[in-house]
Amino acid sequence: MLTVQHLNYNYPATCGLNDINLQIKAGEFVCFMGPNGSGKSTLFNILSGLKTASSGTYYFNNALIDTTFLKNAKRRQTFHQQVGFVFQNSDVQLFNLTVADEVAFGPKQLALSAAEIEQRVTDCLTLTGCSEFRDRVPYHLSGGEKKRVALASVLALNPSVLILDEPLSGLTPIAQQQILDLLTQLNQAGKTILIASHDYNQIKQCASRFVIFNEQHKIVHDLSATDLMAMPELGQQLTLI
Ligand SMILES: Nc1ncnc2c1ncn2[C@@H]1O[C@H](COP(=O)(O)OP(=O)(O)OP(=O)(O)O)[C@@H](O)[C@H]1O
Hints:
InterPro entries: AAA+_ATPase, ABC_transporter-like_ATP-bd, ABC_transporter-like_CS, ABC_transpr_CbiO/EcfA_su, ECF_ABC_transporter_ATP-bd, P-loop_NTPase. It is found in: Cell membrane. Keywords: ATP-binding, Cell membrane, Membrane, Nucleotide-binding, Translocase, Transport. Belongs to the ABC transporter superfamily. The chain is of the alpha/beta class. It has eleven helices and ten strands. It has helices at 40-47, 67-71, 73-82, 90-93, 99-108, 114-127, 143-155, 173-188, 200-203, 225-229, 232-239; strands at residues 2-10, 15-24, 29-33, 55-60, 63-64, 83-86, 161-165, 192-196, 209-213, 219-224. Helix 5 runs parallel beside helix 7 and helix 6 (114-127) packs across helix 7 (143-155). The protein is globular and about 50 Å long. It starts with a strand and ends with a helix. Adenosine-5'-triphosphate binds at residues 11, 14, 16, 34, 36-42. Adenosine-5'-triphosphate is lined by residues 11, 14, 16, 34, 36-42.
């Protein structure tokens, strides 16, 4: 479904990603871990089409996602429908005056009927437990509520892949568990989930695969949750990241 080959990304003064190779199949739940600045957000920006690689290739469902692909408005829109991105900072993502408008924003770009849009909004707010604050200003919500609204707004496009950049950071344990339960439910319903997290003990309850970066912006481990569980020393290292 997603194939990345020899991918590099260079910021003006520093390396962002260093020869990344990755293949992700539909239905996987993959957790990306690594020290601060190791490249997780940079990779997520590329996988979600917000940046393009400096070199190397990224294929989504056999389409090469490069600047030429992303310049085509129709293809770009279809791609963004299929690959949803929940940003690390919800305030960057939420810009509408009400929660309901926020969730309706994506479907409105798809030329759906008003009834279909309302149905999607209601369904996504229910799924994420946000119905009770549908008329509130997103900016005034708590961190956990904002995160669930951001997720609802992405789900409203019904993407097959969900990419979430540290969705648990800054949330209370209860809010974290709500997000994890929701992601598990979405994965069981067939969504492919890619998540960045610093909390191995928490994420190991739901991820089936772990991709670990090092400080040189390279992938140093790519292994199943089962294989990782058989490596207690590595598991211990991950709890310290
Ligand atoms: N906008 C930017 N301009 C210049 N350098 C950047 C920019 N964004 C990231 N970098 C650099 O690219 C490298 C990878 O950063 P990235 O944000 O992808 O790491 P990360 O693994 O997501 O980190 P964290 O866990 O702290 O979120 C780092 O060296 C970082 O300083």
